[in-house]
Amino acid sequence: FAIDPERIKFDRIIGEGQFGDVFCGTFQSKDSQNLEVAVKTCKDTGTTKDKFLDEAYSMTRFNHSNIVRLIGIHTGQPVFIVMELAKYGEMRSYLQKFDDQISENALVRFAIQLCSSLEYLDSQRFVHRDIAARNCLVFEHDLMKLADFGLSRLIDDETFYYKSTQLKLPIKWMAPESINFRKFSSASDVWMYGICVWEIMSRGLKPFQSVKNSDVARIIENGERLPKPADCPPSMYQIMLECWSYDPAQRPTFSEVLTKLKYATVC
User: Fold this and answer.
1) Strands 34-42 and 8-16
2) pLDDT per residue over 29-52, tens digit each?
3) Domains of the chain
4) Has this prediction a pTM greater than 0.85?
5) CA angle, 39 as apex, 78 and 133 as ends, to 5°?
6) What b/e readout covers 222-237, taking b as 16+ CB neighbours within 10 angstroms?
7) 40 a known binding residue?
8) What angle is formed at CA 175 by the lines to CA 228 and CA 203, rounded to 5 degrees?
């Protein structure tokens, strides 16, 4: 996946990542085709560079139609990752921009595609840890792909692991065991998936928008959950509630969720 920087032309900035700016650019392939791409850059070196490249090395393992494809990596200066470019950008802004044009069936289709990508990651023994609409990219009106693997981790012999570093974490999307004990697993990804589906079905609203991060755990402990989005099919909301079971062992697997989704109907 090593890439020649001479084959990349940086155009405009389209976003800001955790480690640096994200550019829209042009990549000249080996057969002289010019491809529009997304280029994630890293401003710093040392340990920051290593953490930045962790995402790229994770992506080299993946091959799925609903996961953003890695095109190349440049580890020299400047350090950057090249990926396929999403025509419509991140999910949340897409939902807000095209709100009136998106059917409930299209929203369910996005939820199915996201679940399919996560079922695949689970089969590869990866936990994503940052499943949110901001990390879902829309390529076509009927196609989304999961991105941002900066927090993903491979689970080797155990079914979970504990996080000890001090990276900024997406508290409002996290399962209670992740908030309280920094414990992450496929089951905690299922909880986050439920939150992301809520974002999709609510057409881009943010979860727990008026709640402080420090209060989220207490609200969940009290049994409160996000309300059913307006016009959301009851079958979809029921899936979300199952994903938000307090006990990780009571949550469905991604394979089970995928089966349920395929039978979910729009009322």
Assistant:
1) unpaired
2) 888 789 999 999 988 767 778 888
3) 5-84 (3.30.200.20), 91-263 (1.10.510.10)
4) yes
5) 135
6) eeebbebbeebbeebb
7) yes
8) 35
